[in-house]
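Quick one from the shared queue. A colleague (R.T.) flagged START domain-containing protein as missing a structural entry in our internal table.

Convert sequence to structure tokens.
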Amino acid sequence: DALATAETSSDYRLTRVLSKRPVPQSPLQDLKPAWLLTFAEETLSEFLTKATGTDLDWVQIPGMKPGPDCIGVVAVGHGCDGVAARACGLVGMDSSRVADVLKDRPAWFRDCRRMEMLGALTTSSGATVEFLYTQMYSPTTLTQARDFCTLRYTSVLEDRNLVVCERSLNLGTVPPREGFVRAEMLSSGYLIRPCGEVGSIVYIVDHMDFEAGQVPEVLRPMYESSAVMAQKLTIAALRHLRSLAQEAAGEVIAGGTLQPSTLRELSLRVARSFNDAINCFPEDGWLSVASDGMGDVSISLNSSWSPRTVGLKSTPSNKLYSDGGVLCAKASMILQNVPPAILVRFLREHRSEWADWMDCDLDTICSNTSRSHVYGASVLVGAELGRRQIPMPLAHSVEHEEIMELVKFEGCDPGRDGAFVSKETYLLQLCNGIDETAIGDCAQLVFAPVDGALSDDTLLLPSGFRVIPLGTGFMDGYDMSYNLNLASTLEGDMSRAMTDTGISSSNFRSIVTIAFQFGYDTNNCDSVSIAAHKYMRTVIASVQRVAMAIAPRVGSTLGLRSLSGTTEVLTLVKQIVSSFRIKFGVDLLGEQPPNNDELFKMLWHHSNAIICCTCKFCLQSLPEFIFANEAGLDMLETTSGCLQDLQWDQTLDESDKEDIYSDITKVMQQGFAYLTSGIRLSSMGRPVAYERALGWNILDGNESMACVAFMFINWSF
């Protein structure tokens, strides 16, 4: 039969490929070729039923529709073992080229640390069977990396379609390495159908079991979410193919003088080097020296780091001193109700909100380390504050979900003689996952100091942020009623879709991982470590403040639902509206709503910021905030839950602090007040200007003053 022929044919050969880093194993020749081919054919059969049949229950991801501006049709598995995703798209490449590209997984999959071929078998029909060992990075500091042992089968079917399928083959010959968890790949792969001169139609199936039970429960959605895997692996494969096809057709226009292929390689190196920083593998020379617990800052040192570590040649311009190395400070934390895309976009556009080096002593410490100013994050000491930031786009991805840019900082530094010297600082920056409607997408902002002259061998030591959603259950079987509300999501109203399906803000979580790298000398390693630890705490606090400010904008509908059902709040809203009519003679809302719920919604969505506070002058205490509508929360950059923790004097600028009761005194004396333009401060200390304001006292049912309300008109940051 065919298998016997394959075993005895002179065309049959069994090769063993020795990897640079040998993995302990039994000789591959001990495995019978007939058994391997039987296993390969079973893998092929299972894969085809997933790729073109109904072996799994597939649910299409919202928004992934066929068309010139879409990458293809993408679906996730429902009710299956592990996580599964399937994609189909048309790419302008021939089938053999598609297969070669996809099989070289480390060249496009940024979470793939290493792939080694341990052996190969070729049949008389030209099909190949390969035995692979693959490592995948951990996406955070709180979980271990994964590895796989798989058999990959490449063959041409009778209908001339090309198939590459793969499945775990764990025979005990390759045990998991230290620091890795052995994961399982169920039948997965690529079905490639030639489509004449147009190119090829590609079907991609990824089906994995990441052993989610071995991670903390709060992080399991990261490994149990088919949507997350679809974005990171399945959709990434289609995007890479489409990008290569467009480059070959001359449709990609890159900024600067670098070719698209060079920019793509730089992008891959930035992302992979950031993964190395997050994982800090001991075999790469990293040594953990400090860790204060799961949610705190950890410090790792690499005294053997050099350009060779990242595959570059040592040159006079990039050579590190032999008496130093690289320090990495990293941490992870959980945030509530903050979508990754919005947070990362804010961090990119408002660098001064988090990149504050003040009081961290990095300026003094790193000034004595010449290498730090070339290789580490401390190259930006003083660069973010008081300097002009000029982004220079280098490349956009096909769907504009990723941006690579060269960021230039211009400013002046004081020279030794007291005169100011012009200084320019550059960052190569990668920002991806910033599409708010992409369900399950991870977002990150990664940047590496460079000298401004980019090239293939530019030395990169990146730092940055990664935000991964932990609340994608509505696409992973936890609440499939979400699929009845896809229209809401397709219109970009994610909060409405979440509300309609009963998903509360407490279930919408993200994990943020932060890693910063610094160069050090042996004589100042301890000082750099202390300063880096202190700076990381500053960054963490800044990110938490930013997240708190972003949350109400995202979850306003959720906040509306929780507040509108409270009797006390409804009573207060009615008193606000009725007291305004009495004091100013006009309706605050412009019309009379039919019921209490509509009354609350109209006040909540009022375009002006309406804020209420209580007054207890007899106790000589400050006014206390008790309520604000959506615009008021946005103006103060806080949430309903945190409003009462905000102090009245925190919202006043220096001139108003001289008389903190001035505005309220005017209202109490005459029952209302017209206030001129002025400045207030948000909870984050940002100045908020308003054109004018109205103040009036709120009367309860006994005609006694219950509190004071202010309405700030035409406010802006």
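The first strand starts at residue 13 and ends at 15.
The two ends are 77 Å apart (CA to CA).
Added to the table.
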